[in-house]
Amino acid sequence: MGDARENEAYEEELLDYEEEEEKVPDSVATKGNGEAGKKGYTSIHSSGFRDFLLKPELLRAIVDSGFEHPSEVQHECVPQAILGMDVICQAKSGMGKTAVFVLSTLQQIDPVAGHVSALVLCHTRELAYQICHEFERFSTYLPDVKVAVFYGGVNIKIHKDLLKNECPHIAVGTPGRILPLA
């Protein structure tokens, strides 16, 4: 019971990055001939992913994934992360936090054969798998970028061979597996 109350209190403390919307005034929603037009809402942040000046391959993958506009957390954090600044971002589930570091990492990465350029540590293997999937999804049109996931429950020899023979540029994994591979 105590955990549920603590969880609720924690959820209330999280910043809410939902898209803010403004009601369109009736004068704007009226057509020039006096007929009432469609009433609707407009987003405060109307910028798109193109405004981040991402690689064309990343923009193509974003469009293929069905994203049209960045969420508020992405709008605030992606430009800073792309510049190489340290970013701490806190938001509710599903607000696009993973895409912030995935896109900024893929934007900055310069793949070098046999060299791991980025390491992402996750506290569970499920999260490691999901993040690896996001890297794969957004790097679809970056054929030179290799991503691999490392977690327990898989023979460590397989992971050692993978690092030796097909070294990924981005390694995603759990500390319990990454540490013995280091």
UniProtKB/TrEMBL annotation:
<feature type="compositionally biased region" description="Acidic residues">
    <location>
        <begin position="9"/>
        <end position="23"/>
    </location>
</feature>
<dbReference type="Pfam" id="PF00270">
    <property type="entry name" value="DEAD"/>
</dbReference>
<dbReference type="GO" id="GO:0003724">
    <property type="term" value="F:RNA helicase activity"/>
</dbReference>
<dbReference type="InterPro" id="IPR014001">
    <property type="entry name" value="Helicase_ATP-bd"/>
</dbReference>
<keyword id="KW-0347">Helicase</keyword>
<dbReference type="GO" id="GO:0003723">
    <property type="term" value="F:RNA binding"/>
</dbReference>
<feature type="domain" description="Helicase ATP-binding">
    <location>
        <begin position="78"/>
        <end position="182"/>
    </location>
</feature>
<keyword id="KW-0547">Nucleotide-binding</keyword>
<protein>
    <submittedName>
        <fullName>Adenosinetriphosphatase</fullName>
        <ecNumber>3.6.1.3</ecNumber>
    </submittedName>
</protein>
<feature type="domain" description="DEAD-box RNA helicase Q">
    <location>
        <begin position="47"/>
        <end position="75"/>
    </location>
</feature>
<feature type="short sequence motif" description="Q motif">
    <location>
        <begin position="47"/>
        <end position="75"/>
    </location>
</feature>
<keyword id="KW-0067">ATP-binding</keyword>
<keyword id="KW-0378">Hydrolase</keyword>
<feature type="region of interest" description="Disordered">
    <location>
        <begin position="1"/>
        <end position="39"/>
    </location>
</feature>
<dbReference type="InterPro" id="IPR014014">
    <property type="entry name" value="RNA_helicase_DEAD_Q_motif"/>
</dbReference>
<dbReference type="InterPro" id="IPR027417">
    <property type="entry name" value="P-loop_NTPase"/>
</dbReference>
<dbReference type="GO" id="GO:0005524">
    <property type="term" value="F:ATP binding"/>
</dbReference>
<dbReference type="InterPro" id="IPR011545">
    <property type="entry name" value="DEAD/DEAH_box_helicase_dom"/>
</dbReference>
<keyword id="KW-0694">RNA-binding</keyword>
<dbReference type="GO" id="GO:0016787">
    <property type="term" value="F:hydrolase activity"/>
</dbReference>
